[in-house]
Amino acid sequence: MQITLIAIGKTDNPELAKLITLYEKRLKHYIKFQFLIIPDIKNSKNLSEAQQKEKEGELILSNIQPADVVTILDEKGKQFSSMEFSQFLQKKMNSGLKNLVLIIGGPYGFSEQVYQRSNGQLSLSKMTFSHQMVRLFLVEQLYRGFTILRNEPYHHQ
Questions:
Q1: Which EC number(s) does the record attach to this protein (predicted)?
Q2: pTM of the entire structure?
């Protein structure tokens, strides 16, 4: 299985980018992982929130294949403990899935078309985080999930 993480816009904070890269490298010891960054929409100040979500949605959907299983990060999504998230990953791998696509939306969320294409929704917390911080939290949780599956000492209960 491959995991593809799609996010809108580059990470502006160099410290965050460095940590994300650290966990990306660690994660690649367990699974094929791709981090796809879709560039910010140009002239977005001239667009309404709905128009920006539509344009971002078109770009997101153009990077998804028909056979991909898509999970979007959404505040209304299912919440997991780290142990439950590792079981979620194991079930996806056991199902013979080729590519699990996780999507972090832009600052206004997702277009209706992206919601319709998704196969599920995941929430990291009831709290709201910046979409840049969520990248770090998600790659760290992916790494943690795989260390749990391998019974490695990273996660403590």
A1: 2.1.1.177
A2: 0.95
> In which residue are the tokens 């593809």 written?
4
Q: Is 128 marked within a binding site?
A: yes
Backbone Cα Rg of the chain? 15
Q: Give me the domains of the chain, ranges plus CATH numbers.
A: 2-40+48-149 (3.40.1280.10)
pLDDT value of residue 155: 85
What is the average per-residue pLDDT within 44-66?
92
Give the contacts of 149 (CB within 8 A, at least 6 positions apart).
86, 89, 90
136 annotated ligand-binding residue: no
Give the pLDDT confidence score for residue 43 in this predicted structure. 76
105 is known to lie in a ligand binding site? yes
**Any known ligand binding at 126?**
yes
* 1 annotated to bind ligand: no
Which percentage of the chain shows pLDDT scores above 70?
Answer: 100
Cα–Cα distances (Å) from 71 to 17, 105, 115, 121, 149, in that order, read 23, 11, 9, 5, 20
Q: Could you tell me which of 75, 52, 57 has the C-alpha nearest to residue 122?
A: 75
